[in-house]
Specification:
Blueprint (H helix, E strand, L loop, with lengths): L29 E5 L4 E7 L3 E2 L7 H9 L2 E4 L8 H11 L8 H5 L1 H13 L12 H16 L1 E2 L4 H12 L2 E4 L3 H9 L3 H31 L2 H9 L6 H19 L9 E6 L9 H7 L5 E2 L1
Parallel strand pairs: 2-7, 4-6, 4-7
Antiparallel strand pairs: 1-2, 1-8, 3-5
Helix pairs in contact: 2-7, 4-8, 5-8, 10-11
């Protein structure tokens, strides 16, 4: 089981949804915040796309060209797959006295088991894993089934450009931070996360075109409606996986506006829409952004 892909991606598939490559003339959500001597660009990302040789949209490449340093949710340039494996072994296994069925309860496990089988995953084979690990496993299985590839996503395309151009890549958080955000959830909330992930995986095919279309058009209202609705009824989950992380990221981004070089910040679209977005948090600190 590989957990190499960054976490910030799963609930509502966290803007991992993508049905087709973005056209070069697409205009995804992109903002510029001006500091005293520099600018910070914030790009709403689609982490996974179908494999394609098509270039990123021109607006994205223009922001990239102006930035000396690129921040992503995690530093993909130095990500360590072994770290994810070690974290999962240490934190993602249930005690021998517990099982996934026992954690979820009979009724919820039965529904989850049925939904997972439709996706080609037998939950009985994952009985000793915590629900958050199972959710990751199911999402990755669905990505593979639909031909969605992190290597074709926005971050990995920018990563390849940065390697050629000698630009620095940094992470807003570590891989352990991302995995820890799920591991720290109570078993009840992890169960919620698994159930919602199963629902989203089942609907991925039909919702993918809608979401990638909104992203390509830069339609933030449509993105917010699609992405945020999945948290209806799960306020604790929303706070842990979105709001708390947005606040930490805003704390790290704000000081960059006192620098002299330009930065490009690339995060999942979910983190840049809605009233709790990174943009709104920065605006509240006196750093209004404008659409590019």
């Amino acid at each position: 089981m590989s957990l190499r892909a960054p976490l910030g991606t799963l609930l509502a598939l966290y803007a991992w949804l993508a049905a087709s490559p973005a056209a070069a003339d697409a205009h995804p959500p992109l903002w510029r915040i001006d500091g005293h001597k520099n600018s910070v660009y914030l790009l709403a990302s689609v982490h996974v796309l179908r494999a394609t040789d098509e270039a990123l949209p021109a607006s994205v490449m223009q922001a990239y060209s102006k930035a000396r340093t690129i921040y992503m949710e995690v530093d993909l340039e130095h990500i360590d797959a072994a770290e994810a494996q070690e974290f999962t072994i240490e934190h993602g296994m249930l005690p021998e006295s517990q099982t996934l069925q026992g954690v979820l309860g009979a009724d919820r496990y039965s529904r989850a088991h049925e939904a997972a089988l439709k996706l080609g995953v037998d939950l009985d084979m994952l009985a000793q894993l915590e629900p958050w690990v199972v959710a990751l496993t199911i999402a990755q299985a669905q990505f593979m089934k639909l031909g969605l590839d992190p290597a074709a996503g926005v971050e990995h395309q920018l990563l390849r450009h940065a390697a050629q151009d000698g630009k620095e890549i940094r992470g807003l958080e570590t891989l352990s931070d991302q995995l820890g955000a799920l591991d720290s959830l109570s078993m009840q909330r992890q169960g919620d996360f698994l159930v919602v992930s199963l629902d989203e995986a089942a609907d991925l095919t039909t919702e993918a075109d809608q979401l990638i279309g909104a992203w390509s058009r830069g339609d933030t209202d449509a993105l917010a409606k699609t992405l945020l609705k999945e948290f209806d009824g799960f306020p604790d989950l929303y706070r842990s996986l979105v709001v708390d992380r947005n606040r930490k990221w805003a704390d790290e981004i704000a000081p960059l506006l006192d620098d002299e070089q330009n930065y490009l910040i690339v995060v999942g679209a979910l983190h840049l829409v809605g009233k709790d977005s990174v943009l709104e948090l920065l605006r509240a600190r006196g750093h209004p952004g404008r659409r590019e």
